[in-house]
Design goal:
191 residues; alpha+beta; eight-stranded mixed beta sheet; three-stranded antiparallel beta sheet; 4 helices; 13 strands; 18% helix; globular
Length: 191
């Protein structure tokens, strides 16, 4: 089984690939109100969020993600001027990924909805189980029993080690979302 996962939006106009490197990613769910607002902005909540309002993500390094087709259909929004850059397709309003607003930060949260697996078993073998569910206090309906109400502080050492490793190994580049230090498209700051 390859560790390269094909990426494809729902209308197939935007395609790419994500390299899954053991020890260099987190398979998570985010239930925060910002992820839910992003899905609502895209008018695509049913396809993006689960029944609790969670978004499933693989958090990894930008160097492991490529857009191979449809770069001209990549768009970006920010929920506020200092917020994350939330990348999506302009063709079918599918989320692509979240990044910090600086190209120097070695982080990209890729939407699992883009990933094309032959079956659930292949997905589980490559990504493993979801290791953290954060911001459960924003759940739609009852908070899942395995979710944390906020971001768990116990996860911080893992995130810091991940970021430091990425900085020392320059995994922030190349990035499909930045041309050197400039975003490939200007972010639309939502009102």
């Amino acid at each position: 089984m390859s560790n390269i996962v094909p990426l494809e939006c729902s209308c197939k106009a935007v395609k790419g690939q994500l390299k899954i490197v053991p020890g260099s990613f987190f398979h998570v769910q985010c239930l925060c109100c910002d992820c839910q607002s992003f899905a609502a902005h895209l008018n695509n909540k049913e396809q993006i969020l689960d029944q609790h309002g969670a978004t499933e993500l693989v958090q990894t390094y930008p160097a492991y993600m490529k857009i191979t087709q449809g770069q001209d259909k990549v768009a970006c929004v920010q929920l506020n001027e200092k917020g994350l850059l939330r990348w999506h397709t302009a063709c079918c309003n599918m989320p692509l990924a979240n990044t910090m607003n600086s190209s120097t930060v070695p982080f990209v949260g890729v939407s699992v909805e883009l990933m094309k697996f032959d079956n659930e078993q292949e997905k589980l073998e490559l990504l493993g189980p979801i290791t953290m569910k954060a911001f459960g206090k924003y759940s739609i309906g009852e908070m899942p029993k395995d979710a944390h109400a906020r971001f768990p502080l116990s996860y911080m050492p893992k995130i810091i080690a991940f970021m430091l490793k990425g900085m020392f190994t320059h995994k922030n580049r190349p990035s499909p979302f930045f041309n050197k230090k400039v975003p490939v498209t200007k972010a639309n700051v939502l009102p």
